[in-house]
Amino acid sequence: MIVQMPRLTCGPGMVTPQLLRPGWFRRARRRSSTLSKRKGPRGKRMSDFKRIDFADVLGGAWAACERLPNAPGVYAFFSPTPVLPTGSSTEFVVALNALIEQRASPVQSARIGSLHEISLDNYSGLSSHKMDVLRERAEDPIFREEIAAVVSRCMPLRSPLYVGQTVTIQARIKQHLSPSSDLATRLRSTGLAIDRCVIAYRLMPDLKTLQSQNVLTLTEEIVTRLLRPGYVSRIG
Question: What are the start and end residues of each CATH 3.40.1440.10 domain in the chain?
């Protein structure tokens, strides 16, 4: 017996036959999700944070700066991407341990009253038992390769070192790269070289209301308080 399906007509809130094809809903939902992610204020396209590893650019950090736009936006500095030596177990353990013990921020000092000063430092390190396990496992070259891969891939998950905002990203990053800049000095105090770091930046949409100084400063503080970078000396 043949059952004839009723003919569907198109109208408000009604479904047409072509919408009933298998997979249509999933494809439509993906397209809708993609469009919603790409649209910003007044339907303008939004840009993701773009990352540049100074170590990957021929000519180094100053050459990388020439790729940056001179436009308003927010930016962040991240720790250099480590390349652990995997050929020797001893060198591997030393390099990994140095990376683990890297300070998350410089030493902070403050006066308390007229007679006292307090200093706060931070520390990270494996326990003696974990160090023994690491030395034992590091004899296996497969283990060294795997841990090196894990370390390399987890670095983008770390908190930024510094977050800032500016009306001219290229010019501002060049100021930071000066050896005498405050940020370069703070990083150097814990053994980090600013010209080996990774930067990420995002331009503000080309709308006058979003490129004002008070909006940029507010955006910087929101990002800073969310990500809590260790080398920001003053928020806001």
Answer: 43-79+158-227
